[in-house]
Amino acid sequence: GIFLAAHFTASTTMAFNSLIHILRDVNFGWLMQNIHANGASMFFLCIYMHIGRGIYYGSYLYKKTWNIGILLLLLTMATAFMGYVLP
């Protein structure tokens, strides 16, 4: 994300142009963008597997720990949504 942000322009008129610049003109920019997008998907896959393991082993019985985990999931989903709506 940091390498992509170095070339990204956060204005409403130049956002898509800076994305095209990253994909076409920056050396291996297309690769960095794909790794970033697929890495985020893999991160959520790991989170869902972790939740599934918690359900399987009955970790939801520890209410405080479970609720903190759900809160972290919701915050992560909100952060991912904000990253998704960027061009």
UniProtKB/TrEMBL annotation:
The protein's location, in the record's own words, is: Mitochondrion inner membrane
Q: Which PROSITE patterns match?
A: CYTB_NTER (PS51002)
Cytochrome b/b6 N-terminal region profile domain segment(s): 1-87
Q: Name one Pfam family in it.
A: Cytochrome_B
Q: Show the stretches that span the lipid bilayer.
A: 35-56, 68-86
Q: Which GO terms describe its cellular component?
A: mitochondrial inner membrane
The superkingdom of the source organism is Eukaryota
Q: Which GO terms describe its molecular function?
A: metal ion binding; oxidoreductase activity; quinol-cytochrome-c reductase activity
Which GO biological process categories is it annotated with? Answer: mitochondrial electron transport, ubiquinol to cytochrome c
Keywords of the record: Electron transport, Heme, Iron, Membrane, Metal-binding, Mitochondrion, Mitochondrion inner membrane, Respiratory chain, Transmembrane, Transmembrane helix, Transport, Ubiquinone
**Alphabetized InterPro entries for the sequence:** Cyt_b/b6_N (IPR005797), Cytb/b6-like_sf (IPR027387), Di-haem_cyt_TM (IPR016174)
Give the way it sits in the membrane: Multi-pass membrane protein
Q: What does the function comment of this entry state?
A: Component of the ubiquinol-cytochrome c reductase complex (complex III or cytochrome b-c1 complex) that is part of the mitochondrial respiratory chain. The b-c1 complex mediates electron transfer from ubiquinol to cytochrome c. Contributes to the generation of a proton gradient across the mitochondrial membrane that is then used for ATP synthesis.
Q: How does it assemble?
A: The cytochrome bc1 complex contains 3 respiratory subunits (MT-CYB, CYC1 and UQCRFS1), 2 core proteins (UQCRC1 and UQCRC2) and probably 6 low-molecular weight proteins.
User: Which protein are we looking at?
Assistant: Cytochrome b
Task: Name its species.
Answer: Phrynocephalus maculatus longicaudatus
> What's the source species' lineage?
Eukaryota, Metazoa, Chordata, Craniata, Vertebrata
> In the UniProt record, what gene is named as encoding this protein?
cytb
